[in-house]
């Protein structure tokens, strides 16, 4: 059969056989579109390179038509390229069956046909297939899938969040860890998991311009994910147009059909926020392009107003998040622009849980009470459940049926579930994650260095008519000669000259001040410096950051305007000069976070040069003594601003110091009170939701166990041997792989022409970025495993073994089975199956010897059979093995029944607890539409049906004949 595709034909995908039997929808213009109804997926390929195999049934084959009993093919006829089968039913009646009506669920097993036909391969190939199968099944069922491969330290709080979030069907969460605790990494871990689990294919990341390249690089070097940056120039290459960017000239249906959507050109896309939020045409295309996950970094920039006056950025994300199932919003300072904005972002994520602002504010007042209830259930459940008052309070929230069943039997699972319900429905919610330095631990010290300076001439005079903002930024008041007259400039110069070996980051609010100061220090004083501000192109900014990061020939100083105070990684520096202090405490926290972040190895030295007895000094005192931000992350700064903001403004303007002193005394007392309140209420709830230390520790133990570097090293060696790659030891725990002269495939996926050097050691990979990190999730390893399993490679084997204990002529049939589940990937049903392949060994007396005869033992004993002897040998044993195969298949079917039972029970239990939550939310909140419950139930039915029709497919079969 030629590879000419015709609509209606049935094909299967070679790399993704689990998609089931596909049907060609369209085959035109060198493209082929194929639907896979069992998995609800569709794929489009270039016809010449489509990885598809035609499925044709032969006379005698079983075929399956939905709603009909078993049918056996008696004849096939071709009509216009498609086949009509004639098939007999149980009553002997023959029915015409056009291939289009065949069931999309298909059981594939070629191993037995190949064995019986003598199409067998060397036992080493069989061993490679068996190892591949074992590993694939282990990793597909592992709860840690997607967490193993990234080149990151295994940090408990990140692993917990990533595993928890990715385990949800369509995760929509706010990642709000304190600044620098690794939200980008958490997002990357979640993306990596969803991609590997095939629960997401198209990912859109929207970030502030200054972080575009950092995201690109982090995704590639840590996660092996190749994102594409989309900007106007790139879009123009596909969709050229000359109209005004803000016009939507393609409104008309006709031009809409003609246009090419540039965003369909890539699966993994990063978009700068400023570009996309001002470009109406591209926004429409972005929304039309269809995505599985949206990630928005620095989400506090999405400003919301109740009166529909929200920012364009907010409106864009609101539009996208209504269309896209999974959404991650990232911000270290969620309440940066007030609690309203925080609420609005939560509402974007889960409108059912957050219907209105007033209720949300009200709810916050009860966090302490909820926290108390949770503490009672967690610490002293027996006493709590015997306390009538406690139970009454619990009943008021959860209803009496849940509470009385808890009173009857307070199992750990039930207690845990009740705590989760309280957290989710009445606490900070299950979509908000916030880890703090206090909970994570191990962070460096912040050390404040105050540098009082004398006030320069003209400043005080200028202040009499200036605003507070201006007086905090003397460069705006001192005129064009400010670089000469401002004592902060001389102090910076001196500091740099006295500390020539230290990397120093300087942040100034204003981009022109940053630019002028850098030019001055570089040209006039010869300081190796770079500058980073919004007027530079993205490439220029990254070049500046890279020059600063270079440990040998890099700049001593980087001067940033405020855009450098967010998201960037400068933890290799230990000195931060704050040329001015912002009035917004979150902004100051963001600035400090450039150095005070994961990876910082020393103290974080914070230098504040300021004019003595000026507004600058007062603001410094405010931050030092009231907000306390120079010794620990700021948790109450916004609340203090809300209460004392006006007074602070007045005190900064006041020439007298008494006002600020009094204010600081009151504010610091208030700060203590607020912190205590947070500690008992909100923070405690957040801590409980954001990381469960025991679960995190279990995850890390599991990941360490799954790493199995020795096995992987052996596996790569086997792979290299069988595929003809050159394999060379590099050093301890590291190898080099290169394309060999006798490769059995034209190209090997993810193997560059000049080879790849990789280490199996995570620690080494973290410090040696020139080496790949080889794990079971490295793209080369995954593609190689797919290559093995998507073909018949090594699926059938005949060997001899010499074992004294067994009679010569004994036949041992070893079969490997893998689960076939034809269901949509988003249901992630593999999680409910055992993390292993299924192996059986039987002899010709139908004895089950699976435990007695280990696979590794057979590998050790195996001897090849000469090709010339094979036909004779087969003739002798064919009838015996023809009888053994159904027996081994029936044993597999028995095991499959247990797998089905256990999997459906686990799935059902999880779904009913999810359903309960949805139901409870519905009864509290009229915004949850009843259809949601219906859709949920339909999904459960799909999952149950798929699990009930789980099959164990024979993937590899070996006949071992005991020799003399
Ligand atoms: N598990 C990890 N292993 C190695 N490096 C890490 C890990 N987690 C974070 N880092 C590094 O720590 C730094 C901070 O991480 P990241 O940028 O993800 O933090 P963030 O919370 O997004 O920061 P911000 O609040 O500033 O946006 C980065 O340099 C990152 O590469």
UniProtKB/TrEMBL annotation:
The keyword Glycosyltransferase does not apply. Coiled coil: none annotated. CDD domains: DEXDc_RapA, SF2_C_SNF. PROSITE patterns: HELICASE_ATP_BIND_1, HELICASE_CTER. InterPro entries: DEXDc_RapA (IPR057342), Helicase_ATP-bd (IPR014001), Helicase_C-like (IPR001650), Helicase_RapA (IPR023949), P-loop_NTPase (IPR027417), RapA_C (IPR022737), SNF2-like_sf (IPR038718), SNF2/RAD54-like_C (IPR049730). Residues 164-352 form the Helicase ATP-binding domain. It is an enzyme of class 3 (hydrolase). The keyword Cell inner membrane does not apply. Residues 491-648 form the Helicase C-terminal domain. ATP binds at residues 177-184. Its EC number is 3.6.4.-. Keywords: Activator, ATP-binding, DNA-binding, Helicase, Hydrolase, Nucleotide-binding, Transcription, Transcription regulation. A motif (DEAH box) lies at residues 297-300. Belongs to the SNF2/RAD54 helicase family. RapA subfamily. Transcription regulator that activates transcription by stimulating RNA polymerase (RNAP) recycling in case of stress conditions such as supercoiled DNA or high salt concentrations. Probably acts by releasing the RNAP, when it is trapped or immobilized on tightly supercoiled DNA. Does not activate transcription on linear DNA. Probably not involved in DNA repair. Interacts with the RNAP. Has a higher affinity for the core RNAP than for the holoenzyme. Its ATPase activity is stimulated by binding to RNAP. This is RNA polymerase-associated protein RapA. The gene is rapA.
């Amino acid at each position: 059969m030629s590879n000419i595709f015709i609509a209606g034909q049935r094909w299967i995908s070679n790399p993704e056989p689990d998609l089931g039997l596909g049907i060609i929808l369209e085959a035109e213009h060198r493209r082929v579109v194929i639907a896979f109804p069992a998995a609800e997926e569709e794929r489009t390929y270039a016809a010449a390179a489509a990885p598809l195999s035609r499925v044709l049934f032969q006379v005698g084959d079983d075929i399956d038509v939905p709603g009909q009993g078993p049918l056996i093919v008696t004849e096939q006829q071709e009509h216009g390229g498609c086949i009509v089968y004639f098939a007999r039913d149980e009553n002997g009646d023959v029915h015409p069956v056009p291939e289009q009506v065949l069931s999309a669920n298909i059981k594939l097993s070629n191993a037995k046909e190949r064995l019986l036909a003598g199409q067998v391969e060397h036992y080493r190939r069989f061993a490679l297939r068996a190892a591949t199968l074992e590993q694939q099944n282990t990793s597909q069922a592992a709860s840690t899938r997607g967490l193993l491969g990234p080149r990151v330290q295994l940090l408990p709080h990140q692993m917990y969040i990533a595993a928890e979030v990715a385990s949800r069907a369509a995760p929509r969460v706010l990642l709000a860890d304190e600044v620098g605790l690794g939200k980008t990494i958490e997002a990357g871990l979640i993306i990596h998991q969803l991609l590997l689990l095939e629960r997401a294919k198209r990912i859109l990341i929207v970030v502030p311009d200054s972080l575009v390249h950092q995201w690109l690089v982090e995704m590639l070097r840590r996660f092996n994910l190749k994102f594409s940056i989309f900007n106007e120039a790139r879009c123009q290459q596909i969709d050229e147009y000359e109209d005004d960017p803000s016009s939507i000239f393609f409104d008309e249906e006709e031009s809409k059909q003609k246009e090419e959507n540039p965003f369909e050109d890539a699966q993994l896309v990063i978009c700068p926020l400023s570009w996309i939020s001002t470009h109406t045409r591209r926004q429409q295309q972005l929304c039309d392009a269809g995505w599985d996950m949206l990630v928005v970094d620095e989400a506090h920039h999405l400003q919301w107003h109740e009166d529909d006056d929200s920012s364009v950025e907010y409106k864009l994300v609101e539009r996208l998040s209504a269309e896209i199932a999974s959404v991650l919003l990232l911000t270290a300072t969620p309440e940066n622009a007030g609690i309203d904005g925080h609420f609005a972002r939560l509402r974007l994520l889960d409108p059912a849980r957050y219907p209105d602002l007033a209720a949300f504010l009200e709810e916050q007042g009860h966090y302490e009470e909820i926290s108390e209830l949770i503490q009672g259930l967690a610490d002293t459940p027996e006493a709590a459940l015997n306390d009538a008052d406690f139970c009454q309070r619990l009943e008021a929230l959860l209803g009496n049926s849940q509470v009385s069943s808890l009173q009857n039997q307070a199992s750990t699972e039930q207690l845990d579930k009740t705590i989760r319900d309280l957290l989710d429905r009445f606490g900070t919610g299950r979509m908000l994650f916030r880890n703090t330095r206090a909970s994570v631990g191990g962070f460096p010290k912040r050390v404040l260095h105050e540098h009082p300076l004398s006030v320069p001439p003209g400043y005080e005079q200028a202040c009499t008519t200036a605003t507070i903002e201006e007086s905090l930024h003397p460069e705006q008041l001192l005129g064009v000669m400010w670089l000469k007259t401002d004592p902060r400039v001389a102090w910076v110069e001196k500091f740099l000259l006295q500390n020539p070996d230290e990397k120093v980051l300087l942040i100034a609010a204003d981009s022109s001040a940053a630019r002028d100061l850098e030019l001055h220090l570089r040209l006039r004083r010869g300081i190796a410096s770079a500058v980073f501000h919004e007027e530079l192109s993205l490439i220029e900014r990254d070049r500046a950051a890279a020059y600063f990061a270079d440990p040998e020939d890099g700049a001593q100083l980087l001067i940033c305007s405020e855009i450098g105070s967010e998201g960037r990684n400068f933890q290799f520096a230990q000195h931060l000069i704050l040329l001015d202090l912002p009035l917004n405490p979150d902004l100051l926290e963001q600035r400090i976070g450039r150095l005070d972040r994961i990876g910082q190895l020393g103290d974080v030295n914070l230098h504040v040069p300021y004019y003595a007895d000026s507004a600058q000094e007062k603001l410094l005192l405010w931050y030092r003594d009231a907000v306390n931000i120079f010794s620990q992350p700021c948790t109450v700064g916004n609340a203090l601003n809300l209460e004392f903001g006006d007074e602070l403004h007045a005190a900064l303007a006041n020439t007298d110091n008494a006002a600020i002193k009094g204010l600081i005394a009151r504010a610091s007392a208030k700060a203590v009170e607020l912190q205590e309140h947070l500690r008992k209420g909100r923070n405690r709830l957040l801590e409980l939701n954001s990381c469960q230390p025991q679960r995190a520790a279990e995850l890390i133990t599991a990941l360490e166990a799954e790493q199995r570097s020795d096995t992987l090293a052996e596996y790569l060696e086997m792979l290299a041997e069988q595929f003809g790659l050159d394999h060379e030891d590099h050093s301890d725990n590291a190898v080099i792989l290169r394309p060999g002269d006798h490769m059995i495939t034209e190209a090997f996926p993810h193997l560059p022409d000049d080879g790849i050097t990789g280490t199996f050691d995570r620690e080494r990979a973290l410090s040696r970025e020139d080496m790949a990190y080889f794990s079971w999730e490295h793209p080369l390893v995954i593609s190689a495993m797919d290559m093995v399993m998507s073909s018949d490679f090594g699926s059938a084997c005949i060997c001899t073994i010499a074992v004294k204990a067994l009679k010569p002529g004994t036949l041992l049939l070893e079969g490997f089975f893998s689960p076939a589940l034809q269901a949509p990937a988003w249901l992630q049903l593999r999680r409910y199956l055992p993390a292993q392949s299924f192996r059986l060994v039987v002899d010709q007396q139908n004895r089950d010897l699976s435990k007695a005869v280990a696979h590794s033992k057979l590998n050790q004993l195996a001897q090849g059979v000469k090709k010339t002897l094979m036909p004779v040998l087969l003739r002798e044993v064919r009838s015996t093995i023809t009888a053994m195969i159904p027996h081994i298949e029936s044993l597999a079917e028995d095991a499959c029944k247990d797998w089905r039972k256990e999997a459906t029970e686990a799935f059902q239990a999880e779904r009913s607890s999810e359903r309960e939550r949805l139901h409870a939310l519905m009864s509290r909140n009229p915004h949850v539409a009843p259809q949601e419950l219906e859709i949920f139930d339909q999904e459960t039915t799909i999952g149950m049906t798929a699990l009930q029709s789980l099959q164990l497919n024979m993937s590899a079969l070996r006949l071992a004949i005991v020799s003399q």
